[in-house]
């Protein structure tokens, strides 16, 4: 345990008047969204988005692909043999946003695709600390 990091994290929030138990709860409650790798293929789209939404999204992308080489290449990369596209990658997320702005995808579809590349983690996990206990909080608060 890196108690210096824990102390800094405790002091970074509005925790001065909170009990050790309240601070521990804040530290361990998932509240920060970070990107994660999620390789989306046609197969994973069907399982993760459900067959109806996946089919709708794929049909929309296929309709645009004839006139848009980037979308055509994206669809080609979504074949399971090609490994898929990473929904947590900034470029993929920007492409999803552009497709929504262009009216190709609606907000529900764009959000669902982007959510595949996200995870919600706690402040402690985000700081590399893992699960925190109240005694650890108590000790960190005593450090100079």
Overview of the structural elements:
It is a single chain. With 144 residues, the chain is mostly helical. The protein is built from 9 helices and 4 strands. It has a two-stranded antiparallel ribbon. A two-stranded antiparallel ribbon has the order 2-3. α3 (42-49) crosses α4 (51-65) and α4 (51-65) packs across α5 (69-77). The protein is elongated.
Q: Reading side by side through the largest sheet, how are the strands ordered?
A: 1-4
Derived from helix and strand composition plus strand pairing, the structural class reads mainly alpha
Sheet bearing the most strands, described? 2 strands, antiparallel
Strand content: 5-15%
Work out the count of structural domains. 2
Please compute the radius of gyration using only Cα atoms.
21 Å
SSE succession: HHEEHHHEHHEHH
Mean pLDDT: 95
What is the general shape? Answer: elongated
Distance N to C terminus: 17 Å
Estimate the helix proportion, in percent: 55-70%
The low-confidence parts are: none
């Amino acid at each position: 345990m890196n108690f210096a990091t824990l102390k800094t994290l405790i002091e970074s929030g509005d925790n001065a008047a909170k009990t050790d138990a309240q601070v521990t709860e804040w530290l361990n409650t998932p509240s920060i969204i970070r990107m994660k790798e999620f390789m989306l293929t046609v197969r994973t789209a069907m399982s993760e988005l459900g067959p109806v939404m996946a089919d709708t999204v794929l049909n929309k992308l296929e309709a645009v692909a004839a006139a848009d080489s980037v979308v055509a290449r994206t669809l080609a990369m979504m074949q399971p043999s090609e490994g898929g596209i990473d929904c947590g990658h900034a470029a993929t997320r920007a492409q999803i946003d552009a497709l929504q702005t262009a009216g190709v995808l609606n907000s529900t579809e764009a959000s669902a695709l982007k959510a595949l590349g996200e995870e919600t983690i706690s402040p402690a996990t985000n700081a590399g600390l893992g699960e925190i206990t109240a005694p650890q909080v108590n000790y960190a608060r005593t450090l100079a």
